[in-house]
């Protein structure tokens, strides 16, 4: 699964809850890949070994325990995002990974280079089981951004335009005397 399905559908699921931290939900929706893709590349030498520790039930249960103990909405949102991620990856179809370490070591994936891996992901979009969630996630992200366009515009004005104006003022002050 790719970015739009994970993030977009996780944010769409936030409508089910009265209290949720959207930033942590979005982070949680990508956390298994953020952890496992580099880990697979570093330890196993292939980005295709990107479903290891963070794609397991053990990892999810650890997050559930931490969220239950801390009662922190951010950690709960992160945990919900991880659950959405594992669901969208259909991890029940990979019981050796999902139930690790109970069923033995992680299954080996073919060793391929990063460019071939990205090509494989893009060709996966021909599969309706991948394309439809991606399109739905992208559609939700577009509607999400559109509904918040005033807040986004204010944020851009506040954090992106203002520093440039200040930098321009500083440069003018510096070079006024020359």
Molecular structure report:
The chain is mainly α and 178 residues long. It is built from eight helices and no strands. The longest helix has 27 residues, at 149-175. 27% of the residues are buried.
What keywords describe this structure?
178 residues, globular
Distance between the termini: 58 Å
List unreliable stretches of 5+ residues: none
Shape: globular
CA radius of gyration: 21 Å
Q: How many separate structural domains? A: 1
Number of strands: 0
The number of helices is 8
Mean pLDDT: 84
Mind summarizing the main beta sheet? Answer: none
- Helix % is over 70%
Strand content: under 5%
Helix-strand topology string: HHHHHHHH
- Please identify the structural class as seen in this structure: mainly alpha
Secondary structure layout:
Blueprint: H1 3-13, H2 22-44, H3 57-70, H4 73-88, H5 95-98, H6 114-123, H7 128-147, H8 149-175
Helix pairs in contact: 1-2, 1-4, 1-7, 2-4, 3-4
Give a brief description:
The protein is mostly helical and 178 residues long. The protein contains 8 helices and no strands.
